[in-house]
Design brief:
Blueprint lengths: L13 H15 L9 E8 L2 E13 L4 E7 L3 H8 L2 E8 L4 E12 L3 H10 L31 E15 L6 E6 L2 E5 L2
Antiparallel strand pairs: 1-2, 1-4, 2-3, 3-6, 4-5, 5-6, 6-7, 7-8
The structure holds flavin mononucleotide.
Protein name: Pyridoxamine 5'-phosphate oxidase Alr4036 family FMN-binding domain-containing protein
Cofactor: FMN
InterPro entries: Pyridox_Oxase, Pyridox_Oxase_Alr4036_FMN-bd, Split_barrel_FMN-bd
Length: 188
């Protein structure tokens, strides 16, 4: 059974729903407490499906692109370089909306896109996330040899090809698909 959530005003047209979900995605990167700021990024690993929490950093609505920052040594980067297909799953209890954003991820490890963003965050505490001398997931050995700290900052861009929207609501759940074939209602 899906959890029942109340949403003050229900949108009725697919156009309005698509507009509203992109607006919310645009807001979430600026609102620390927005549920969609932290979402789950799923990819294909060598041993099957893999998934992890990430923070949405930027949204380009026109280009249908979502950006996430990462340590370029993290295993997900190699996974996404092998197979670019990925799904981002977002859930907002306030809206009662789940999104499954499917598409392809491009990982930038250098170039202007990376250096310009690194220039703005390198003096912030968050920069530490990309300066660890040990690669994410590497085994930690006390007294072990480590690299000199340097940045391993990269930008992952998800080019969204389809949005699977699910609304969980006390008056009945609704689901819709927005993709290259257009907009349509689905059975929830
Ligand atoms: C709340 C939260 C936010 C996170 N945000 C990010 C992020 O924006 N980018 C990132 O690469 N990892 C982020 N992580 C860490 C990942 O979930 C994951 O542990 C790490 O990136 C290694 O993943 P991998 O082994 O699949 O590459 C976050 C973890 C948590 C708990």
């Amino acid at each position: 059974m899906l959890e029942q959530v109340r949403v003050a005003q229900r949108l009725t047209s697919l156009d309005d729903i698509e507009e509203a979900l992109w607006q919310e995605l645009g807001h979430c990167v600026h609102e620390r407490d927005h549920d969609w700021r932290r979402c789950v990024l799923a990819s294909s690993g060598e041993q099957g499906a893999d998934a992890r929490l990430v923070v949405l950093r930027e949204v380009d609505r026109e280009a249908r692109e979502l950006m996430i920052y990462t340590d370029t040594r993290s295993p997900k980067v190699a996974q996404l370089q092998r197979d670019r297909r990925a799904t981002l799953v977002c859930w907002s209890a306030a809206l009662g909306w789940q999104l499954r954003l499917r598409g392809e991820v491009e990982v930038a490890c250098d170039g202007l896109q990376v250096t310009s963003r690194w220039a703005t965050i390198k003096h912030r505490p968050a920069a530490q996330d990309y300066l660890s001398p040990l690669a994410p997931g590497s085994e930690w050995v006390a007294g072990g040899k480590v690299d000199h700290p340097r940045e391993h900052f990269g930008v992952m861009t998800l080019q969204v090809q389809s949005v699977d929207w699910l609304e969980v609501h006390a008056l009945g759940h609704r689901r819709a698909m927005f993709d290259a074939r257009g907009r349509r209602w689905l059975a929830p």
